[in-house]
Amino acid sequence: MFRVLVVQALTGLVTAFACGVFWGLVAGYSALLGGLIAWLANLYFAHKAFRYFGARSAKAVVQSLWSGEMGKLILTAALFALVFVGVQPLEPLALFGGYLLVLGVGASALLLMRNKPKH
């Protein structure tokens, strides 16, 4: 999971830089904020979901996954609300683009790592 978070962070930074270069400073920091929202929510989920390791307590593992996902959704909504209320000017397309890219890279990285044999 640590590698996925690192790839997501790098994706957010590269996206923000590219948006800043091609569409200006507002688009750059908007994309950075979108990527940061996705990354922080995934960081929270990873912390909550992987607290319990192994099969010692299946109930605790399920509860941890559920609370991690619910917390992730609430945190995502709260961070978007804070950004929309507190950051002006803002480029919504860049914000959502940064968010979706970081989210998509995380999902595809998990799929790629799942299919990659361990050495």
Describe the 3D structure.
This protein has helices spanning 2-23, 25-49, 58-86, 92-115. The model has no long low-confidence stretch (mean pLDDT 89). The protein is mainly α and 119 residues long. The protein has one domain. It starts with a helix and ends with a helix. Helix 2 (25-49) crosses helix 4. It is found in: Cell membrane. One of its GO terms (cellular component) is plasma membrane. Pfam families: ATP-synt_I.
The fraction of residues in strands falls at: under 5%
Characterize the main sheet. none
| Count of DSSP-assigned helices | 4
Mean model confidence by pLDDT: 89
Sketch the topology as an H/E string, one letter per element: HHHH
Structural class call reads: mainly alpha
User: What value does the Rg take, in angstroms?
Assistant: 16 Å
Identify low-pLDDT runs: none
User: Percent range for helical residues?
Assistant: over 70%
- What's the shape? flat
Number of domains: 1
How far apart lie the N and C ends?
Answer: 18 Å
> Based on DSSP secondary structure assignment, what is the total number of beta strands?
0
Main location: membrane
Protein name: F0F1 ATP synthase subunit I
Organism: Azotobacter chroococcum NCIMB 8003
Keywords: Cell membrane, Membrane, Transmembrane, Transmembrane helix
Annotation keywords:
single chain, 119 residues, mainly alpha, transmembrane, membrane, F0F1 ATP synthase subunit I
Concise structural overview:
The chain is an all-alpha fold and 119 residues long.
Write the SSE topology.
Blueprint: H1 2-23, H2 25-49, H3 58-86, H4 92-115
